Amino acid sequence: MSLHLAQNQKADALISKDPLALLIGMVLDQQIPLEKAFTSPLDLKNRLGGRLDAAEIAATDPEDLAAVFSARPALHRFPAANAKRVQELCRIVVDEYKGRPVDIWKKAANGDDLLRRVRALPGFGEQKARIFIGLLGKQLGVQPPGWEDAAGRFGQSGTFLSIADIVDTESLGRVRAYKAQMKAAAKAAAQP
Questions:
Q1: Are 94 and 103 within 8 A, CB to CB?
Q2: For the CA atoms of the chain, what is the radius of gyration?
Q3: Predicted TM-score (pTM) above 0.90
Q4: How many C-beta atoms lie closer than 10 Å to residue 62's C-beta?
Q5: Please, what CATH class does the domain formed by 9-156 belong to?
Q6: Element (H, E) at 187
Q7: pLDDT tens digit string along 164-179?
Q8: Long-range contacts made by residues 80-88, C-beta under 8 angstroms, separation at least 24?
């Protein structure tokens, strides 16, 4: 299945076929528009000479990688911090998964194991890990036993809660509307 998170054909093709690109997009998906987060792996690939290789990124001088992230237009609102996160992600992929990012989910024994593996990645808190598991299960067919429980509400079908539910422009709008509604409700609840 082809993902539609970047809303850019080339960027979406990359994150659909390259597990490392998808993970990088997930790491970057915070404090910037999601289209930018999921387009940035393609931009990073182009800046790195046409390759996204976990071992190469892990071995890159941290200052050089930060410069790649910071070059205009920057890959993220906070390029240096996210260069560091992406480099740490790549180190984990190399050290724990022999350079095969897909093994993070393909070799998970069950939903709990998958949640543990994803939560151990830099930039993945509890909610982001569950959203990612929802995306894997709903759109990429990664469904080890118990994946729905691990994804929580993000694994439920028929919802428009997160990127796990974005399959086209219309569903993107519905997810954005839901998030705006939640933000307004939280703001109203915080009012004295």
A1: no
A2: 16
A3: yes
A4: 11
A5: mainly alpha
A6: helix 169-190
A7: 999 999 999 999 999 9
A8: 82/27, 82/28, 82/123, 85/27, 85/122, 85/123, 86/24, 86/27, 86/28, 86/44, 86/57, 87/57, 87/58, 87/60, 87/62, 88/122
